[in-house]
């Protein structure tokens, strides 16, 4: 018996073990009946289970007994449970998993938008593109000008989108509209963005059909998102061969950071080296402070302040002067303060709020004339968002208030009386928007925005909607529609506020259809659009029709009216490929634009002078690891733009308006960024040259205000770039004791 | 044979686990009997494989383990770790790797919610950032190298005795070329420092994070061969 017992025990246990082994097999399919690989099928509260193979098949054994739930789980699908009796027999079980419908991320409405930044992986345009695109000269607008939908205006430097004027593109910094996004320049000299691209971690550029979150833009929106905490404590020194020096210091603590910059520029030495047609003096000094503080687990408080002082003197083309050049002097002082706070709230809600104040004071003296423009504004905004993951939709609700004071002083000469014009605007805005996932393949966005403007004494309500359909894993079709309103610009309002019939908001209606294919770091995007303008401001020129008189005489307020109309339609194409050749990234963008409008003093509907019918940009970047160098090239083409030639214009019939055609615009720019070290400190050397082929681009003609006495014809002088080429070297040294120098990655700044 | 080995490992692991149950945290003690042993076996299996498919399977095992002990952070930690190592081993495209890293970060976030060891979680976070960087070094180096360093510094601060942040930091130096302030010469003392930390390190339990020593020793060996070859 004593010897039997262990044997018996052994047999018993073995028997029990055998009896308890249950084999579970089966398949897992999706709602459409397709097998799902990689599904984790297991008995809940045990380690027993298996993942399905490529045919959606699973098999495993278990020694558990009783009844346990069998779970099938895969990310992106609703997990399913089935109770299974574990009785030692083989069981076959099959599952059908439904995809989670709430994943708003499946289909994103992309109509009209170019996302840039490091947050989203499949960005069309990354933050570093701004700095490394040849010809962009490290300017946000310069880089965005290589995307479809834009027409490059070499004499303005700003963004002209889909037949819209520069004022129709509104820029936002951390959700707050920017009053003066560009630095001040006299007419004919290209402006640059006021903010350094290194301030931003991302940019959203929308060329139409944008969200109800954005207003006061008829054509486009550029939303800049500033960086959060400065990454590390470091000091930066940079020198620009054009005559600029920047010192930057950033200090990082665990939950906060402060970054300070000081910048001085004086191009006099450069002018001595490269003779200039227009520029005589270019001097600027600026400073900025950016403070960041993390609040709670996810909150972020940001304060950014900057101050800039600028002095420019130019000789601008003017046919009324004997040598064809008029001296213009410009002094500008700009102060900007922006404070924002974002934090999560309870129940999936989050809050974004902020306020910004701007003061821009500009004195401009075209020869004898004295013009002063002072604009001050304060804007505040609060937005709450619910991105609750369990819902099929999200909700965003916001309000914005603005107070603005604009003052304009004009003297024909120093001894003359001063004409003063001013207005005060108070604007209140509310908006609501929701993104809805109708199914895994269809998502939509509906929203509305309402504004009240005190200076106009009017309301507007702008409905907007977008719909996206995912054709397959790689491609998507989306459409957008909406109304967009904008208060007339300051120079229209300063006299227009006295119009007999109060002016209206200028209005645009957008329709657009987008096809996008994106796979393996290749992107193709086709977009067609139709834009209709209404209520554009119009006025009559004093005396006989000649726009050149505007420089000396203000139009009569009695002629201001909101009756202008226009249209723009076209096709935008973007192809970007980062895959085909190793270390080579290129994109081609083309836009076809058909536009006409009647605005301001236009006597008839005509093609505006800033629109080109065909626009092409080819951008390439090649990283040579061995030389630690990134090479870049950009070729830009713009078909002939229209200009006004008084000799061809017939005031009686209205024919021949804007009938002149400039030569086409062409530019080939090259740059390189070389990474090295100076005394073990990371150093970047940028070398950049625009218009390497030396083509003489013409930006327009400036006609005399009166015809030549002898010939009866108006004489003209061409508006040309200040110098044919712009060549510069930029040196940046980052002094950082903590980080080893890495020269094997392409530069970001 | 594999199964026998597995069972053997399971047995030894459960033995060593039962010997150390005293040191385990209160949360794991609520787990059903046998949990410690199963975990130990699953961890051992994870540490022995470098095969992408096996690593995915291992992550699935830990996902199951998380349903056994929903209050324990360790299954989620190892799930994240298995997915992360899968990214280093697999030959898949960047998009796929990023998706896997998304899952790894989701698991890490769950581990954090369950109140896991802060220093270990930060070390794993630093490792994940390194993997993100590796997906597209040209585009991401600037952003992620700072984040890697930051997470390492925080992990060291949370527990100066945790050897893993030292190892990850040393790896960073090792893979930076010599002429730019990295390389084996610079990395070697960092590995030595990590080695001291590893020798003094006692895991909190049989299933608490204890990986990295093997990697360290082989890297140190690589350092020495590289330095010898340079002479």
TrEMBL record, chain A:
<keyword id="KW-0675">Receptor</keyword>
<keyword id="KW-0472">Membrane</keyword>
<dbReference type="Pfam" id="PF07715">
    <property type="entry name" value="Plug"/>
</dbReference>
<feature type="signal peptide">
    <location>
        <begin position="1"/>
        <end position="19"/>
    </location>
</feature>
<dbReference type="InterPro" id="IPR037066">
    <property type="entry name" value="Plug_dom_sf"/>
</dbReference>
<dbReference type="InterPro" id="IPR036942">
    <property type="entry name" value="Beta-barrel_TonB_sf"/>
</dbReference>
<keyword id="KW-0998">Cell outer membrane</keyword>
<dbReference type="InterPro" id="IPR012910">
    <property type="entry name" value="Plug_dom"/>
</dbReference>
<feature type="domain" description="TonB-dependent receptor plug">
    <location>
        <begin position="124"/>
        <end position="217"/>
    </location>
</feature>
<keyword id="KW-0813">Transport</keyword>
<dbReference type="Pfam" id="PF13715">
    <property type="entry name" value="CarbopepD_reg_2"/>
</dbReference>
<keyword id="KW-0732">Signal</keyword>
<protein>
    <submittedName>
        <fullName>TonB-dependent receptor</fullName>
    </submittedName>
</protein>
<dbReference type="InterPro" id="IPR008969">
    <property type="entry name" value="CarboxyPept-like_regulatory"/>
</dbReference>
<keyword id="KW-0812">Transmembrane</keyword>
<dbReference type="InterPro" id="IPR039426">
    <property type="entry name" value="TonB-dep_rcpt-like"/>
</dbReference>
<keyword id="KW-1134">Transmembrane beta strand</keyword>
TrEMBL record, chain B:
<keyword id="KW-0732">Signal</keyword>
<feature type="signal peptide">
    <location>
        <begin position="1"/>
        <end position="19"/>
    </location>
</feature>
<protein>
    <recommendedName>
        <fullName>Tetratricopeptide repeat protein</fullName>
    </recommendedName>
</protein>
<dbReference type="InterPro" id="IPR011990">
    <property type="entry name" value="TPR-like_helical_dom_sf"/>
</dbReference>
């Amino acid at each position: 018996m004593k010897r039997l017992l262990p044997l018996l025990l052994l047999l018993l246990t073995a028997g029990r073990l055998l009896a308890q082994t249950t084999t579970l097999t089966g398949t897992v399919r999706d709602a459409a009946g397709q097998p799902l690989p990689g599904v984790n099928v297991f008995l809940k509260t045990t380690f027993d289970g298996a993942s399905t193979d490529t045919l959606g098949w699973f098999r495993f054994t278990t020694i558990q007994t009783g009844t346990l739930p069998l779970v099938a789980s895969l990310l992106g699908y609703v997990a399913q449970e089935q109770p299974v009796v574990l009785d030692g027999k083989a069981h076959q079980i099959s599952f059908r998993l439904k995809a989670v419908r709430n994943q708003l991320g499946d289909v994103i409405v992309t109509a009209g938008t170019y996302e840039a930044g490091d947050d989203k992986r499949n960005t069309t345009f990354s933050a570093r593109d701004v700095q490394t695109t040849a010809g962009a000269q490290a300017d946000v607008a310069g880089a965005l000008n290589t995307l479809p939908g834009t027409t490059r205006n070499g004499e303005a430097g700003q963004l002209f989108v889909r037949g819209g004027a520069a004022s129709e593109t509104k820029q936002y910094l951390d959700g707050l509209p920017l009053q003066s996004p560009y630095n001040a320049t006299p007419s004919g000299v290209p402006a640059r963005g006021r903010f350094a691209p290194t301030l931003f971690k991302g940019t959203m550029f929308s060329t139409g059909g944008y969200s109800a979150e954005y207003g006061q833009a008829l054509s486009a929106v550029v939303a800049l998102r500033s960086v959060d905490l400065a990454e590390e404590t470091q000091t930066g020194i940079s020198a620009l061969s054009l005559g600029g020096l920047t010192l930057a210091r950033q200090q990082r603590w665990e939950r906060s950071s402060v970054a300070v910059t000081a910048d001085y520029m004086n191009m006099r030495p450069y002018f001595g080296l490269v003779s200039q047609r227009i520029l005589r003096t270019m001097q600027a000094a600026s400073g900025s402070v950016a403070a960041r503080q993390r609040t709670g687990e996810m909150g972020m408080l940001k304060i950014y302040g900057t101050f800039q002082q600028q002095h420019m003197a130019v000789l601008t083309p003017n046919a009324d002067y004997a040598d064809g050049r008029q001296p213009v002097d410009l002094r500008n002082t700009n102060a900007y303060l922006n404070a924002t706070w974002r934090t999560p709230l309870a129940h999936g809600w989050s809050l974004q709020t902020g306020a910004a104040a701007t003061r821009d004071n500009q004195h401009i003296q075209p020869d004898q004339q004295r013009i002063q423009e002072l604009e001050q504004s304060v804007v505040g905004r609060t937005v709450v968002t619910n991105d609750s993951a369990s819902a099929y939709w999200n909700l965003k609700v916001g309000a914005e208030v603005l107070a603005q004071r604009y003052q304009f002083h004009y003297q024909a000469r120093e001894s003359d009386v001063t004409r003063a014009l001013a207005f005060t605007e108070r604007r209140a805005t509310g908006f609501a928007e929701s993104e809805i996932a109708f199914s895994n393949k269809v998502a939509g966005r509906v929203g509305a925005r309402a504004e009240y403007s005190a200076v106009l004494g009017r309301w507007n309500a702008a409905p907007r909607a977008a719909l996206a359909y995912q054709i397959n894993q790689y491609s998507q079709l989306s459409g957008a529609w909406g109304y967009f309103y904008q208060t007339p610009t300051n120079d229209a309002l300063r006299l227009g506020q006295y119009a007999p019939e109060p002016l209206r908001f200028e209005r645009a209606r957008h329709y657009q259809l987008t096809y996008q294919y994106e796979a393996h770091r290749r992107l193709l995007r086709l977009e067609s659009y139709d834009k209709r303008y209404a209520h554009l401001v119009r006025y009559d020129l004093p005396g006989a029709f000649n726009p050149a008189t505007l420089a000396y005489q203000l139009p009569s307020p009695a002629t201001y009216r909101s009756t202008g109309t226009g249209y723009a339609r076209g096709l935008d194409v973007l192809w970007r490929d980062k895959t085909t050749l190793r270390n080579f990234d290129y994109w081609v963008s083309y836009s076809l634009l058909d536009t006409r409008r009647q605005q301001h003093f236009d006597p008839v509907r005509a093609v505006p002078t800033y629109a080109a019918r065909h626009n092409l940009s080819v951008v390439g970047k090649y990283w040579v690891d061995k030389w630690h160098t990134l090479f870049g090239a950009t070729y830009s083409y713009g078909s002939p733009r229209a200009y006004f030639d008084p000799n061809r214009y017939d005031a009686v019939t209205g024919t021949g308006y804007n009938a002149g055609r400039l030569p086409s615009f062409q530019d080939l720019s090259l740059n390189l960024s070389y990474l090295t070290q100076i005394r073990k400190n990371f150093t970047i050397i940028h070398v950049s040259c625009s218009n390497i082929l030396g083509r003489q681009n013409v930006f327009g003609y400036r006609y005399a205000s009166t015809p030549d006495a002898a010939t009866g014809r108006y004489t003209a002088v061409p508006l040309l770039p200040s110098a044919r080429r712009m060549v510069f070297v930029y040196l940046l040294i980052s002094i950082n004791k903590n980080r080893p120098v890495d020269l094997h990655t392409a530069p970001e700044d | 044979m594999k199964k026998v080995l597995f069972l053997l490992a399971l047995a030894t692991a459960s033995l060593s686990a039962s010997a150390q149950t005293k040191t385990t945290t209160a949360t794991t003690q609520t787990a059903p009997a046998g949990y410690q042993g199963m975990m130990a076996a699953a961890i051992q299996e994870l540490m022995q494989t470098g095969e992408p498919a096996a690593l995915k399977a291992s992550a699935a095992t830990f996902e199951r383990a998380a349903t056994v002990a929903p209050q324990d952070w360790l299954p989620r930690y190892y799930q994240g770790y298995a997915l992360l190592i899968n990214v280093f081993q697999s030959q898949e495209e960047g998009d796929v790797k990023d998706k896997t890293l998304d899952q790894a970060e989701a698991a890490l976030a769950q581990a954090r919610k369950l109140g896991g060891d802060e220093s270990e979680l930060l070390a794993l976070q630093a490792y994940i950032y390194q993997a993100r960087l590796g997906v597209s070094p040209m585009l991401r180096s600037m952003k992620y190298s700072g984040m890697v360093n930051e997470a390492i510094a925080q992990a060291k601060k949370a527990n100066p005795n945790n050897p893993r942040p030292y190892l990850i930091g040393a790896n960073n130096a090792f893979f930076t070329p010599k002429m730019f302030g990295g390389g084996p010469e610079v990395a070697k003392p960092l590995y030595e420092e990590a080695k001291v930390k590893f020798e003094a390190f006692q895991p909190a339990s049989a299933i608490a994070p204890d990986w990295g020593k093997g990697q360290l020793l082989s890297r140190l060996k690589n350092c020495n061969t590289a330095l010898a070859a340079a002479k």
